[in-house]
Design brief:
heterotrimer; A alpha/beta (395); B alpha+beta (154); C alpha/beta (369); A: 395 residues; alpha/beta; Peroxisomal Thiolase, Chain A, domain 1; ten-stranded mixed β-sheet; two-stranded antiparallel ribbon; 14 helices; 12 strands; globular; C: 369 residues; 13 helices
C-alpha cells in the first residue's frame, strides 16, 4: 500500500542569534511551537505526537534535553521521540515525522526542536569529540577542518577558486537581508570575504557559518487534515537519506564508492527522493533549493549531486548568477546555513524555508511560481545526508 | 522574569566532565603495538579486497570480517590537506597542517599532521600539499603505541 | 501467488542478542555492534546489500561519542543505506522502526541498539539530565528519582519489593541469554543497603554490556519472499513521554504507562491483559514491576517477565528492546529454558528517563503457519 499523503500545514521559527539571553532552552522551543501551531490554526490538543529534533546535547550541556522540554511544548502525555543524526538531525526528524503520519499511526504531528550552539564556548571542542577516539581525534578534526580538507580536494579536482566560494557567501548574506529570522546578513563583497581572518585553508571567517541559537517547528498532517486546515499546504512528496562511513579517507583512492570532494552520497539520497516525487528534470521542475551549507564550499557539490548541473559546473554557473534570487533555480533564498546554524534544527529550518516557498508564504524571500522545492541536511563527517522534496501538488 | 535588562553575563556557569573507559579491542590493540616497532598495520577483507587504514575489524561495504593484516608502506600520496590558522579550545596552537594520506599498498587514506613545513606563507605552503603530492612517514624517537607516534613529512 | 500478509504490517524476521556480560573487555563498541548486526543478518540468510534501511537507537552520552552514530552507523550495516537514529531508548527505536515499515516506504530493515555500560559512569551521565537551574544543584539521578518513585507509590511495601527482586533474579538465573549469576534471596535483598530509601541496592539490577539487532520486514516483503518465515508480527505499538516535573501524582500515577499500553493494545486490537500470554517488563527496579502490574490490572496468575528482565542482563539503554526480543522469542517458541508454554501474544514494556518519564509498549503476535 502506498504511503498516506503527508503535508506541511504550519511552520514557525524564532529569530536566530548567538544568544537568547532572555530565555531558557525550554522557553525558546515553546516559542517556535506556538508559532507553528498558530500558523496551522491548531491548538496543542490537536497534536497527536511529537518528534523532537536535537543533535548533540553537549552544546547546551543538558543530557536528554527533550525530556526537560516536554512540558513547555505541551507534549506531556503524548508520544514523543527525539531524533539525532548530527547535522542532519532536522532532516531526519522531518523524515520521522513523515513516517509518523504516512503510517497512519498519527494524524497531526509536531516536529520541533531548538539549539543553543554558543551556550558552550567549546563548540568546536565538542565537534572534535565526535571523532574516532583512537585514530582521528588527535588530529584536530572538527567540522571546520573536515570540510576544509574536502574543499581543497574539490579545488584540485575542478579548479574551483576561493573567490568562487566567496561569491556564495556574498549571495547568501544578501539573500538573508530579506529573512527576518537569519543570524548573519548584509551587503558584503568578495574582498570582504577574502580579507576576513584565516581559519583553515581555504576557509576564512566569512566562509564559515555562525553558532546560532533559536528554535524551529513544523506541523504535519495527512491529506484530510491538510484539506480542512490549509488552502496551500506543502506536500512531502519525496524523502531520501544516505549514511556513509565516518572515515573520510575511505572516500579517496581508486576503490572509493563515493568521492570525498563531491558530497556524492547526496546523489543517492536525491535520486531516491526524486524517484518518489516523480522528479525527472530537477532544473526544470524544482524552483528552490534550501541547502545545508555551513561552509561556502558545500554549495557546489550539493547542487551537482542533486542533478541541477554536471560535476564541476556549479561554480561557473554561480558566477553567472544562475542561483541568484528569482533565477531558474534559487539557491537558499533564506541565506541558508551559511547565515544561520542552530545545528539541532538547521535541517528543519531548511525544510521550513522550502515548504514556505511552496506554500507561498515566504514573505520577502518568496520566489514566484514555486511548485517544487528541495531541502537538504548533512551531518557527521559529511556522512549523513537527507533530501526532501516538497510539492504544491500531492502525488 | 526575563526582561530587557537581561545581559549576557546573566548565566549560570557549569561544566560537564564525564570520564570514559574506551575498550580498545583487538584490532586497534595490534595496530598500536605495531607502532612501537615502527610498523603501520592495515586490515584487509579478502571478500571485498579492500585494505583499511585506520584498521577495523570488519569491512563496512561487504560486511564481512577483515581477515588479513597488511603492512602499509612508509610513503604515500596526499588525498586532502589543510593548514589551520585559527586557535580552537583544546586543539594545538596554530598554524599546523593536517592531511589525509593514502599510504602505499593501502586503499584508504589516514589523517595525521604534516610536520616540518614552513608555514610562514600559508598560501605558498598549501601549494606544497596538493592532492597527489608524495609524502613520507616519520616516526617519533620513542614510539609509545599511540597514533601520534608518526606523522607525515614532505 | 495470493498475498497472505498485509503489505504495511511490520514483522520481526530475526532477533540477535550479543552475549551478555558484566563487561566486554576484548572488543571496542563498534566491534560488538558489528558482530551483533552481522549475526542477525546471517541468522535469517540475508546480506547487508538487501537492506533498504537501518534504524538505530543509541545514546551519545552513554557511548562516550558525541554523535555516536558517526562511528556506529557502518558497523550497524548502514553504509550507503537510509539510516536514522532515536535517542530515547532501544525500545523507542522499535517505535520509529514501526512508523517506517508501516508507512509503506520501507520494507527490509535492521534495527540496532546497544549499551556498553562499562564505558561511562552511568549515574554521572544521568545526573546531566537535570536542568542546570533548579534540579542540578540538588542533584538527581536514576537511583534517586527511582527512590522518590518508590517512596511515592501508594501501598509500596519494601518486603514485597524484595520478594519481587528475588523472583526476577531466579527467573534470570534460568535465562541462558543472561549474565550468569547466583540469585540473591529475598532476605539478602531486604538486608542490602539503601540506595535512596525505600529503594535498596538489591531492588535493582546492575548495568551490563550488551547489544541487540532485529531484522524487521513489511508484509509486502514477506509476500515477495515466500521462503522467509517471520518470528512474530509487531501488532501493536504505543509510547508516551510524561512531565519532567516530579510531583507525587507524576511519580505514582503511571499515567504514561497507561497511555502507551492502551495505545498499543488498541493498535493490536486487544482489550485487556487477559488477552496476553506473556508480559515482559523492563523492571529497572522491583517497584516498577509492582507498579506496572497494578496500573495495568495484570491478573495475579499472568506470566510476567519469564526472562528475568533487566535482572538477566541490563544494557540499560537497550534493556527495553531486550525485553521485546524476549517477548518475540516467546511468541516464536524459541525462548529456551524460560519458554512459557505456547505463547500466541506477548507484550514488552520499557521505560526511560527519570522515574519512568518515558514508556513504550509493544505487542507481538504469533504468525499462523
Amino acid at each position: 500500500m502506498s504511503p498516506q499523503q503527508v503535508a506541511v500545514i504550519g511552520t514557525g521559527q524564532t529569530v536566530f542569534k548567538k544568544h537568547h539571553d532572555d530565555k531558557v532552552y525550554a522557553e525558546l522551543v515553546q516559542d517556535a511551537t506556538l508559532a507553528a501551531l498558530a500558523d496551522a490554526k491548531m491548538t496543542p490538543d490537536d497534536i497527536d505526537a511529537v518528534v523532537f529534533s536535537m543533535a548533540p546535547t553537549e552544546f547546551v550541556g543538558i543530557h536528554d534535553i527533550e525530556k526537560w522540554s516536554v512540558d513547555s511544548i505541551f507534549g506531556a502525555g503524548k508520544p514523543l521521540m527525539r531524533i539525532h543524526t548530527g547535522g542532519a538531525t532536522g532532516g531526519s526528524a522531518l523524515h520521522a515525522g513523515y513516517t509518523h503520519v504516512a503510517s497512519g499511526l498519527y494524524n497531526n504531528v509536531l516536529v520541533v526542536g531548538a539549539d543553543r550552539v554558543a551556550e558552550t564556548p567549546d563548540s568546536q571542542h565538542v565537534l572534535n569529540l565526535i571523532w574516532d577516539r583512537f585514530y582521528e581525534f588527535d588530529f584536530a578534526l572538527n567540522t571546520v577542518t573536515m570540510t576544509a580538507l574536502s574543499s581543497q580536494r574539490q579545488m584540485s579536482l575542478y579548479g574551483t577558486t576561493e573567490e568562487q566560494f566567496a561569491q556564495v557567501v556574498v549571495r547568501a548574506r544578501a539573500n538573508a537581508l530579506r529573512n527576518p529570522h537569519a543570524h548573519l546578513k548584509g551587503k558584503i563583497t568578495i574582498d570582504d570575504v577574502m580579507n576576513s581572518a584565516p581559519i583553515s585553508w581555504p576557509y576564512k571567517l566569512f566562509d564559515c557559518c555562525p553558532r546560532s541559537s533559536g528554535a524551529a517547528a513544523m506541523v504535519l498532517t495527512n491529506l484530510e487534515g491538510a484539506r480542512k486546515k490549509c488552502t496551500k499546504p506543502a506536500f512531502i512528496n519525496g524523502i531520501g537519506a544516505t549514511a556513509s562511513t565516518v572515515f573520510q579517507g575511505d572516500k579517496t583512492g581508486p576503490k572509493a564508492d563515493v568521492e570525498y570532494a563531491d558530497l556524492a552520497e547526496l546523489e543517492i539520497a536525491g535520486k531516491e527522493a526524486y524517484g518518489q516525487a516523480g522528479i525527472t528534470d530537477p532544473m526544470r521542475e524544482i524552483q528552490v533549493a534550501e541547502l545545508y551549507d555551513p561552509f561556502s564550499s558545500m554549495q557546489f557539490p550539493q547542487i551537482e549531486s542533486l542533478g541541477f548541473c554536471g560535476r564541476g559546473e556549479a561554480a561557473a554557473l554561480s558566477d553567472a548568477g544562475a542561483f541568484d534570487l528569482g533565477s531558474e533555480l534559487t539557491v537558499s533564498p533564506s541565506g541558508g546555513t551559511l547565515c544561520t546554524n542552530p545545528i539541532g534544527v538547521t535541517g528543519l529550518v531548511r525544510a521550513i524555508e522550502a515548504a514556505n516557498q511552496v506554500m507561498q508564504k515566504a514573505g520577502d524571500m518568496q520566489v514566484s511560481g514555486v511548485r517544487n522545492a528541495v531541502a537538504t541536511a548533512i551531518g557527521g563527517s559529511a556522512q549523513f545526508y537527507t533530501c526532501s522534496v516538497f510539492g504544491a501538488d500531492h502525488l | 522574569m526575563a526582561n530587557d535588562e537581561t545581559k549576557a553575563s546573566d548565566v549560570i556557569s557549569g561544566e560537564w566532565n564525564v570520564r570514559y573507559n574506551y575498550s580498545v579491542g583487538k584490532v586497534a590493540g595490534k595496530f598500536f603495538d605495531a607502532l612501537k616497532e615502527r610498523k603501520i598495520l592495515a586490515t584487509k577483507s579478502s571478500k571485498s579486497g579492500i585494505s583499511y587504514l585506520p584498521p577495523r575489524a570488519y569491512c563496512e561495504r561487504s560486511f564481512e570480517a577483515c581477515d588479513e593484516w597488511v603492512e602499509a608502506g612508509h610513503e604515500g600520496v596526499i588525498e586532502a590537506a589543510t593548514i589551520v590558522s585559527a586557535a580552537f579550545e583544546h586543539l594545538p596552537p596554530p598554524p599546523y597542517a593536517i592531511a589525509y594520506v593514502r599510504l602505499d599498498g593501502i586503499d584508504t587514506a589516514m589523517i595525521n599532521f604534516v610536520r616540518g613545513l614552513d608555514m610562514s606563507d600559508v598560501g605558498a605552503a598549501m601549494g606544497k600539499l596538493k592532492p597527489g603530492t608524495r609524502v613520507k612517514v616519520e616516526f617519533v624517537d620513542k614510539p609509545e603505541g599511540k597514533v601520534t607516534d608518526f606523522h607525515y613529512v614532505l | 501467488m495470493v498475498p497472505v500478509f498485509k503489505e504495511n504490517d511490520a514483522y520481526i524476521l530475526g532477533v540477535t542478542l550479543h552475549e551478555a556480560r558484566d563487561r566486554v573487555t576484548d572488543k571496542r563498541l563498534e566491534e560488538m555492534v558489528y558482530d551483533t548486526a552481522k549475526k542477525a543478518l546471517d541468522a535469517v540468510g540475508l546480506n547487508r546489500r538487501d537492506l533498504d534501511h537501518v534504524t538505530i537507537a543509541a545514546c551519545d552520552e552513554l557511548d562516550g561519542r558525541s554523535i555516536s552514530s558517526m562511528l556506529l552507523a557502518a558497523p550497524s550495516g548502514a553504509y550507503l543505506k537510509d539510516e536514522i537514529k532515536a535517542t530515547d531508548s532501544g525500545l523507542t527505536g522499535l517505535c520509529l522502526e514501526a512508523t517506517r515499515i508501516r508507512s509503506g516506504r520501507f520494507h527490509l530493515g535492521l534495527l540496532v541498539s546497544w549499551n556498553k555500560s562499562s564505558i561511562a559512569p552511568f549515574e554521572d551521565v544521568m545526573r546531566m539530565r537535570c536542568e542546570p537551574f533548579y534540579t542540578r544543584p540538588i542533584g538527581l539521578n536514576m537511583s534517586i528519582t527511582d527512590g522518590l518513585f518508590a517512596g511515592a507509590m501508594r501501598g509500596a511495601d519494601e518486603a514485597k519489593a524484595s520478594q519481587v527482586a528475588a523472583s526476577y533474579g531466579q527467573a534470570a538465573a534460568r535465562n541462558p541469554r543472561g549474565v550468569a549469576r547466583t540469585p540473591a534471596g529475598a532476605d539478602a535483598i531486604a538486608a542490602s543497603p539503601y540506595v535512596s530509601t525505600p529503594l535498596r541496592e538489591g531492588h535493582r539490577p546492575p548495568v551490563t554490556d550488551g547489544a541487540i539487532a532485529m531484522v524487521v520486514v513489511s508484509g509486502k516483503w514477506l509476500n515477495d519472499n515466500p521462503g522467509k518465515t517471520p518470528m512474530a508480527r509487531l501488532s501493536g505499538i504505543g509510547w508516551s513521554l510524561e512531565s519532567y516535573q516530579l510531583g507525587a501524582e507524576r511519580l505514582s500515577s503511571m499515567s504514561g504507562l497507561k497511555t502507551a499500553y492502551s495505545n498499543a493494545m488498541a493498535d493490536a486490537g486487544l482489550s485487556g491483559a487477559a488477552d496476553l500470554d506473556v508480559i515482559e517488563i523492563e523492571a529497572q527496579t522491583a517497584y516498577h514491576d509492582i507498579a506496572t502490574r497494578e496500573a495495568l490490572a495484570i491478573p495475579a496468575d499472568q506470566i510476567v517477565s519469564p526472562s528475568g528482565g533487566p535482572f538477566a542482563q541490563n544494557p540499560y539503554f537497550c534493556a527495553g528492546l531486550v525485553s521485546a526480543a524476549e517477548a518475540v522469542l516467546q511468541v516464536a517458541g524459541k525462548a529456551g529454558p524460560v519458554q512459557a508454554g505456547q505463547v500466541k501474544t506477548a507484550a514488552a514494556i520499557g521505560f526511560h528517563g527519570f522515574a519512568h518519564q518515558g514508556t513504550v509498549a509493544a505487542i507481538f503476535q504469533e504468525v499462523p503457519a
